[in-house]
Amino acid sequence: MTALQEKYDELQKTFDNEKEQMEEFQKKMATLWIEHEEMLTHEEAERERQRAADARDAAVTEACRVVGAYARAFLARKAAAATTNTLHRRRRERR
After folding, report:
1. For 18, which DSSP code?
2. Whole-angstrom Cα distance, residue 18 to residue 21?
3. Dihedrals φ, ψ of 26, to 5°?
4. Is 91 part of a structural domain of the chain?
5. Residue 63 located in a structural domain
6. Over the chain, what is the mean pLDDT?
7. Phi, psi dihedral angles at 25 (to 5 degrees)
């Protein structure tokens, strides 16, 4: 019976050691999973920030294009008005 008890104790010790190793492995896996989820969340947040920055850049570019178009139109009207005023002034000077 002593040999059977020794064998049982040996198997129980092996089982306990393997159970402990399994629990440690599961803890490590849970930690890695949490880190992985945090990394994915961080990457998604970074992509969202980049999309927002791209949208802001596009909006600024569009606003600059519109302002440029208005500026060109204003300068064209100003030049046309200056030409008209110059013609009227010359006509008055001739009289």
Report:
1. H
2. 5
3. -65, -40
4. yes
5. no
6. 92
7. -60, -45
Residue whose token pair is 């850049």: 57
Host domain of residue 74: 69-95
CA 46/CA 74 separation, integer angstroms: 41
Task: Write the DSSP assignment of 19-66 as a string of letters.
Answer: HHHHHHHHHHHHHHHHHHHHHHHHHHHHHHHHHHHHHHHHHHHHHHHH
Whether the model clears a pTM of 0.70, i.e. scores above it, the answer is no
Q: What angle do CA 64, 66, 71 make, to 5 degrees?
A: 90
Number of domains in the chain: 1
Residue 25 within a domain: no
Tokens of 33: 């999973």
* Intra-chain end-to-end CA distance of the chain, in Å: 139
pLDDT tens digit string along 47-58? 999 999 999 999
Tokens of 11: 């198997």
